Amino acid sequence: MRTWVSKRRPLKEVSAALALAWSLLAGTGCDEDDTKPPDDSPSLPTHTRVDNASLDVLPGVNPNALDVSGTGNIEVALLGAEGLDVSDLDPAEATLWDAKEESKVQALGAATARDVDGDGRLDAVLTFSVPALKKAGVLTPETHRVVFRGRTRSGAALSAQDAVHDVHHVVVQLPTPTGPHAVGTLEQAWTDTSREESLTPEPGDWRELKVRLWYPAVARPQAQPAPYFLQPLEGELFATLGGLPPQVLGFVLAHAVRGASLPEGSERFPVLLLSHGYGSASALSSRVAEELASHGYVVAAISHPRSSSPLVFPDGRVVSDVVEISPADPALNRRVQDVWTADARFVLDQLVRLDEADDQGRFTGRLDLSRVGMFGHSFGGSTAGEACRTDARVKAGLNMDGTFFGDLDGEVRVPFLVMNSEEAAVDRSRARFFEHLRATGYAVSFQGAGHFSFTDLGLFLPLLRHYLPNTKAEAYQLGTLDGARASALTETYVLAFFDKHLRGHPAPLLDGPSAQAPEVELVVHAP
């Protein structure tokens, strides 16, 4: 059955992370009819440039902060890679552009090639004039990234980008992960040729997904951390559709290094699937994903096309249309829920194949698929419940403040934890879920938490207030609980739950009230 009932780009109605409507309703379980504002979203691209190289602005510096009013020159490195011999780069063709790719400055010249990121390959080091970059508008007080364009002497075009910001600009640095491992990250794009896409009107479309992986990695202190959104344009589109300046999320700094190697040896790491809220983005769970990866988990975050924020696929396509679900249409909600649950099963199938034979050799034999869990926020939390009910490979599940939209009469037979905001009391589906849970269950309620307190959004308030000084936490469903505290509590309980039920570690935090977490009420449901 095809379920297409969408419009182009109605994210003002579905991404509550930026004051957009549906996720708020999905999170609190409201039964009210929805009222939709006019579709006045800005026009979005359908295709973007595809990078074929990597850039490191200010090699050896992290984060990339500089005084854009200063003088002198800066170094920028084009990173060597398999298939890219940087000695073939033509310095006369090397240019830096602003994020919109409207203005450019040519390199002054090239310095001696050296390995700036510690991967054993030589990198091309180019010099640019700061005053020239400022005069051209490539560097401004609001710059958050720059784009490199160049050519090899043999005529091949090169494109890359990296973050950079004025030293005086407000930034948000995610807390440093506390586990023993460094963290790597990368994206995969997979197509399920066994499922026709039911969320588009065209026949013959196959369901395609983007999956971001965070995983334990070997530390590379010289390497530049990946941007908060691996595809920076996705963050710009997410902000724009929420009525904020596009550069906002470019000032959020994470820790994971793109493409880092796993630790040496043969250790297999438990796998956690992650599902975002409806109309939202996987990146908003970066802090908990980095924390889990630092403690030895591989986190596979699923981006569900046509029910997420805009996605940029590896071939440059932008997928931004969204199916409009509604509290007034439970049948449609259930059908979309089934699509998301099938997405989770498919991703788990792909991870099995990745463990058997990863083309890059990175994950081959390194995924412990006997210890699989799933968690998610809002609609993604409901998906975790359905995955636990329908896929025996998933051994434990966790729902971050989400109404359940699956089969509420079906039994779940694996341990499950539900996190609750203060508004959760109006959601009748949670009590019904526990009635049919046939394993240990936990209801964890955070005093003062709002629906988005379980994501990174609460950490962003200083940045949001830089642009909108009168911003109130309540406007973003963040409640009264401090954002940093809410985020710390969230990752602590998520880690404790999966450590107990996937690794068999003691978890006193789940045994009763904790003096270290007085804001949290814990109710344990016996099977």
Overview of the molecule:
The model is unreliable at 1-39 (pLDDT under 50). With 527 residues, the chain is of the alpha/beta class. The two termini are 36 Å apart. The strands form seven sheets. It has a ten-stranded mixed β-sheet with strand order 16-13-14-18-17-22-23-24-25-26, sandwiched between helices. A four-stranded antiparallel β-sheet has the order 2-4-8-7. Helix 5 crosses helix 6 (379-390). The chain is built from nine helices and 26 strands.
Shape: globular
**Which stretches of 5+ consecutive residues score pLDDT under 50?**
1-39
What's the story with the biggest beta sheet? 10 strands, mixed
Number of helices: 9
- Helical percentage: 10-25%
Query: Any idea what the radius of gyration is?
Result: 23 Å
Strand content: 25-35%
Helix/strand class: alpha/beta
Q: N- to C-terminal separation?
A: 36 Å
Q: State mean pLDDT (0 to 100 scale).
A: 91
Largest beta sheet: what is the strand line-up?
Answer: 16-13-14-18-17-22-23-24-25-26
How many β-strand runs? Answer: 26
Summarize the structure.
Helices cover 21% and strands 25% of the residues. It is of the alpha/beta class.
Layout of helices and strands:
Blueprint: E1 6-7, H1 21-28, E2 54-57, E3 65-66, E4 73-79, E5 95-97, E6 104-106, E7 109-110, E8 124-129, H2 130-136, E9 145-151, E10 157-163, E11 165-166, E12 172-173, E13 182-196, E14 206-217, H3 232-241, E15 252-253, E16 257-258, E17 269-275, H4 286-294, E18 298-303, E19 311-312, E20 318-319, E21 322-323, H5 330-356, E22 367-377, H6 379-390, E23 394-400, E24 416-420, H7 428-435, E25 441-446, H8 461-467, H9 483-503, E26 520-525
Parallel strand pairs: 3-11, 12-15, 13-16, 17-18, 17-22, 22-23, 23-24, 24-25
Antiparallel strand pairs: 1-21, 2-4, 4-8, 5-6, 5-9, 7-8, 9-10, 13-14, 14-18, 19-20, 25-26
Helix pairs in contact: 4-9, 5-6
